[in-house]
Amino acid sequence: MENLSTANRGEGEVAKKIENQTAKLPSDVFLWTAVTAMGVSSFLHCMGKKHAGLFVGQWVAPFLLFGIYNKIVKTQGHD
Q: Which residue ranges run through the membrane (predicted)?
């Protein structure tokens, strides 16, 4: 069993490729996508499609988290 302090903690190839691609996107893309999801959610809710509105409304937090991840990758870099 390998000691955790000496284990290879580098990132996998898939993570590196994703970070290289997402680093090309402006951070505003994630913010405006989240705001758009809020608007669509409100519209669906007002149109009486409450379940669809709640479904779309749940997309807001992941979009904002993707934006935070994108910002961290841009400022801190990756392995």
A: 54-72
Q: Which residues contact 49 (CB under 8 A, 6 or more apart)?
A: none
Nearest to 78 by CA among 18, 19, 8: 19
Using CA of residue 61, residue 62, residue 67, residue 68, what is the dihedral sign? positive
Global pTM reads 0.73
Separation of alpha carbons 11 and 14, rounded Å: 8
Range name among 4-8, 45-49, 50-54 with the lowest pLDDT average? 4-8
Separation of alpha carbons 22 and 25, rounded Å: 5
In the chain, the amino acid numbered 57 is G
Q: Measured between alpha carbons, how far is 16 from 20 in angstroms, rounded to an integer?
A: 6
